[in-house]
Write a structure and sequence with these properties.
Elements lengths: L2 H18 L4 H10 L3 E4 L3 E4 L2 H14 L2 E10 L2 E9 L6 H9 L2 E8 L7 E10 L2 E4 L2
Parallel strand pairs: 1-3
Antiparallel strand pairs: 1-2, 3-4, 4-5, 5-6, 6-7
Amino acid sequence: MVAEELRAVQKEEAVKRMKALKMLDQPIKEFEEEGKLNLSESHGILYWLDEEEQKMVDQFEKEHNGLVYHVIKSFTTIGLMYSLLYVSEYLEEWQMDMENIDDECQLAYVVNKDMPGCSEFGTIGVKPMNGGVVRTW
């Protein structure tokens, strides 16, 4: 599959996941029509990404060939975390990823802004709230 075809099917899959996460229609529409990302912060309140956050997403997508469809910003006891929800390039993983949404968890890449060397892939807890999503664990 060529890069443009992959990106198109990743985008379709991302929209399905956003709907499954019960996100508001507006951020889904912005993503679908403009490629604009929203970020959930503090109880699922939605914001647009700032320039630095967008660069972080662009870098992840370039390095891992995934399509980020939403970001969760969390202030934790161990620092500022950005959980990048994304659709991977591996189509065989997508069904399991959708099933995980029903179990309120998702595979994400978590950027640790205070200790970048601790950034990693992992499963996180997510649930819908106030039109966005929150990280639960």
